[in-house]
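Let us practice reading a record.
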Amino acid sequence: MMLRPKSLAAAMALILAPLAASAAEKASADIVGAGGKPLGTATLVEAPTGVLVRVDLRGLPPGDKAIHIHAVGTCADHDHGFVASKSHLNPQGRKHGLKNPDGPDAGDLPNLRVHSDGTVLAEFFTTLASLTGKGGRAAVLDGDGAALVIHANPDDHMTQPIGGAGPRIGCGVVKAAQ
């Protein structure tokens, strides 16, 4: 039996569609600190109503730290405070803060708790973003990418523009899983 070109193309699309979908459903980031020092990893998994974020870090100062999704996928300026990653992922132009009545923006996430030994193993969920823009949510894997950024202090979830989170001490470019 010989398949016509259109039938062959349709069959190939059915076979390859799950592979393409799985790549868009998972992403990761290698988190680095000052000088490009490796701090650990983050994994982001698309879910029906948002993104599940898991971080596994070491070598951070103990205490609560803010973590946000920033709008540009670069961490190359690790000796200059990761400012090239720009501000939060925020295509809707909302105010910063999970507790802000005019927010939150799509980059807002709960704080991390760094243990006394400098480690973090945490998992949290955001309904504000999507890896690909699913459900009209802000897309993490858009044209200029995104970065997960860790700050020196906790986020108060209200103060503009970043909740008093302080300097950026860690950064990871979010990349689609292969």
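A brief commentary: Helices lie at 5-24.
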